[in-house]
Amino acid sequence: MRWTLIGALCVIALGGIALGQRERLPAECRQEIVQLCRGAGGGFRQCVRTALPKLSDPCRKAIGARDAAPIAGATEHAFGPDPKQRLDLVKPAGVSRAPVLLFVHGGGWSIGDKRHAAGDKSAWANENGWAFATANYRLVPQATVENQAADVASAIAWLRTNARREGLDPDRIVLMGHSAGAHLVALVGTDPQYLNAAGVPMNAIKGAVLLDGAGYDIAPQANSKLNPVKPMYEAAFGNDPKRQAELSPTLQAAAPNVDRWLILPVASRIDSRNQSNGLADALNRAGASAEVVAVPGENHGSLNKGLGETGDFATEQVDKFLAGAR
């Protein structure tokens, strides 16, 4: 029963990465979580929600690798010297200058893997004439959120630098992120320092799709005692109000920004809806075009896992959005 509970909590807190009873973690990792959370203030449930940054690197890797099967037809490429600075690329057959959809995974800034829930996305993108790339990035606490945003920008730069060799269009790139990955995509798409440092012009990014992020304005989330994953925000963003503001896409949304945005919160998540609307309002005031569509009948994990499936509501919204980016 306890491991079923851990799975349910982690689905909420960790970008839909399930740890259910049929997908048991290695014994060493299970024991590490029990030792960390036994007798913890706030109880076992609260500790499980927020323990990730305190776990050992091997345990966090084991959690992040769940549901991360190899992607059919993908090739892996390094965009930096760190082992995490890798992307998988799958190209559509018969397209000589394919536009690129780059996906950034979630996981509370501290776990996750580029292959998580990526198989259906890659097949769907290729069927629609898009190349699909999915990138890893360095993780908290070994890296900072600033490092992570720089990694996303570096992955974009690699795609543009190698576009001719790989048969890609360097100036038709759309970014998509889920959960913490949605925050990173939003940060790269609003704060030009990251793309500038990577040598990527803002106008090469034709759009950004955000899947159920709830951290576009950091301070309300990091400082709220009611936020069940408050320690996760604290581990990623610290307690300095200036740094929290600098890493908040909503507060960085003065022009220039990526021009077009599709923001898809889960309809039942009030914090995600509120944060999404706040970001969209800031972007629209700055001259970008941002639309929020609340997704019914999904949860934080199922929205991400179902993206790319036939008949999926969110996929239909993204299809319409990508049609305008070609």
Automatic annotation (TrEMBL):
State the superkingdom. Bacteria
List the GO molecular function terms. Answer: hydrolase activity
| TM spans (from-to) | none
Question: What keywords appear on the UniProt entry?
Answer: Hydrolase
Task: Please name the InterPro entries in this protein's record.
Answer: AB_hydrolase_fold, BD-FAE-like_dom, GDXG_lipolytic_enzyme
**Residue ranges constituting the BD-FAE-like domain according to the UniProt record:** 87-191
Q: What is this protein called?
A: Alpha/beta hydrolase
Provide the species name.
Answer: Sphingomonas caseinilyticus
